[in-house]
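[step 3/7] fold_predict: job queued, chain A
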Amino acid sequence: MEKYSVFLFLSIVTTGVLLAQSRIRESDLEGTTWKMVFDIEHEAKDDADTAFERIILSAVDGLLDEIHVYFEFLEDNRMIVWVDAFGVEDEEEDSEWYVNRRGELIMGDADSVSADNTIWMRDGSRISAYKKKRGRLKRSDEIYLKRVRRR
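[step 4/7] structure written:
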C-alpha cells in the first residue's frame, strides 16, 4: 500500500511540474525582438453566438492583421517598442522590462502600448499574456508574443 501512495504522490507532483509554465530568464530576452500576435479569430469561433458577432469579430481580426507591435529587449532592462500600423511605421518608444522572482515578465508602459498589469509567462516557444482575476492568473489566449529575431 505504501508503494502505491508514493507512486501516486510522485505522479501528481510530476504532472504539476509538466503542466506549469516555464520560467523566463533575463538572458532569454536580452538581444531579442518579439512580435505581439492578436489571435481573436480563435476566440471568435468559440465565443460568437450569432452570425452578426462572427462577422464583427472577423472584421476586427482583419484590422488587427494590419497592426504589428514589436518589442526589442535590450540589456539593462531597457526595451524599444515600435508599431507598424497599416504600412506606416511609428517612431520607436522607450520603455522598461524586468523578470520577477517567479520568472514572470513584467513590461512597462509606452505611449502606444499599455501593459495594464499584464503578466507574461513562457508557454512553449511563445510568451503568453496573463491577467489577474480574483487573485488568480487567467491566460489570454488571444494575445501572445512570438520571437522574430535574436541579435
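[step 5/7] annotate
The domain at 22-150 is CATH 2.40.128.640 (Lipocalin).
The two ends are 55 Å apart (CA to CA).
exit 0
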